[in-house]
Amino acid sequence: MADALSKLLETRDWLLADGATGTNLFNMGLSSGDAPELWNVDEADKIRALYRGAVEAGSDIFLTNSFGGNASRLKLHAADKRVRELNIAAAELGREVAESAGRPVVVAGSVGPTGEIMEPMGTLSYATAVEMFHEQAEALKEGGADVLWVETISAPEEFKAAADAFQRAEMPWCGTMSFDTAGRTMMGVTSAAMAEMVDKLDYKPVGFGANCGVGASDLLRTVLGFAAAGTETPIIAKGNAGIPKYEDGHIHYDGTPELMADYAVLARDCGATIIGGCCGTMPEHLRAMREALETRPRGERPTLDEIAARLGGFSSASDGTGDDVPAPSRQRRRRRG
Amino acid sequence: MSDEEDIILSELDDGELVEQMQDDLYDGMAEEIVEGVEILLERGWVPYDILTKALVAGMTVVGNDFRDGILFVPEVLLAAKAMKAGMAILKPLLAETGAPRMGKMVIGTVKGDIHDIGQNLVTMMMEGAGFEVKNIGINNPAEEYIAACKEFNADILGMSALLTTTMPYMKIVIDELKEQGLRDDYIVMVGGAPLNEEFGTAIGADAYCKDAAVAVEMAKQLIAAKAA
User: Fold this and answer.
1) What is the distance between the alpha carbons of residues B16 and B19, in angstroms, rounded to a whole number?
2) What pLDDT is stored for residue B1 in this prediction?
């Protein structure tokens, strides 16, 4: 039997995902630095309100409050023994909200990065990463998540470790990476390289794409890169609502609902099927995105210039794909055998 | 590269060996760096010259290519690891010989922020450039930054934040330094994914550093400016 997300994708040519988790929770009083996952147990009503905010604004998919719910992250809050409990709670609350939505809504179990650097550069072994992701995956499954959703990943090995873990948990999944360094992930992965990696995975995702990163324009450039790679897998676009600005001791994202509405329609024109927001994206942004996706016609695939004109400029001249890849400037002298 | 001839480090003259060590740093070859350092020491090089002419010069190339988007974090981490292997031999010798210091830095993520990959990268790049760095880890309140700066006799205070919700805390630390009359004792550098130049200026930092390579350049410039 097909999973809930694949079924929705059969009937619709675009789906609206959700917006920010952190930004919303901070507005509800979460202190910066506290583990949001603890609220799945301690402040269940606020997590229900978070999920409902997205569903009522028109999201077809929402991500559970479990981004930092792996043992490596929870350990920093001395809660690494609570992985199972906190992830089950995250998914159960999601299930409850989705069931009462009155339309099909997909509960996606969010899985964030471990925060460790993998071998050989760092200390985290592939096997340990798989084990941590698997522990979280089983708990999200047990709590009733429809799909698993790994996000904000920068290292290809970590993405593959999550895929392996999800296969062990026998769960359908989606995965997004964060392209925040000159159009690549922090670890240097280009959009084209990610598309190629996803195509080669044994256990393929239902959808893949990009989340977070720099601004809406950069994110769409990345989506164009996925589309140019000729992938058959549905593409996910989850960009930030603009760029964070500092005013009077507070941070706010400068992306308006109108800008995010433009972004959503452009994302669809770029080839994305699953469209949502990330940091700074509130229910009012999602509402504007939904309305735009429902009412505005599809257009031609936009050029980079058109994207920059509508949403603002890019953070770097190139994103490492296509003909303008910077060649290593350095002539090798010689290398040892 | 098995069709190429093996290079025997000890058969190279000094100039070739230094160039080769810079290449090996670029490629993150720790064992070869250790071997190169040992050969130069045997040939009577003073530790400070090995540090600056071979290692720091090599890491400068790595830093520039990182800044220019030619190298990415994985390559830089491997280069820094190789650098560190060489430094492990040189460090005690540098102290014994009273070699000049580049400067000292205290670095940590601000209170509420547990994301330390960025500052770990800055630590490695700064060490790669010859600075002494005390990395005080995650979640630091103002008093811990200030205590560490005093204890370590730091020239530079570096603060890192990954979250928009934690970055305003940098201003609290700077205000506390002012309050205690210590602001001018330290160069304050800030960095992290959501920050920008405008934010650095708004909170009164001496420099906003877009990435680890920029941090090294800014540190060198600001130390030189302060000494002048």
Assistant:
1) 5
2) 45
- A188: nearest CB among B5, B6, B72: B72
CB A226 within 8 A of CB A239: no
B-chain residue closest to A114, CA distance: B115
Chain A residues closer than 8 Å to B163 by CB: 22, 32
Please tell me the predicted confidence (pLDDT) of residue A323: 59
Please give the residue range of the domain that contains residue B13. Answer: 9-96
> Is residue B129 assigned to a domain?
yes
Task: Tell me the pLDDT tens digit for each residue of A142-171.
Answer: 999 999 999 999 999 999 999 999 999 999
Chain B contact present for A299, CB below 8 A:
no
A103 contacts chain B (CB < 8 A) = no
Residue ranges, chain A, pLDDT below 70: 1, 32, 249, 323-337
Is A270 known to sit in a ligand binding site? no
pTM of the prediction? 0.88
Q: Identify whether residues B135 and B216 lie together within a single domain.
A: yes
Whether B2 sits inside 8 A of A330 (CB atoms) is no
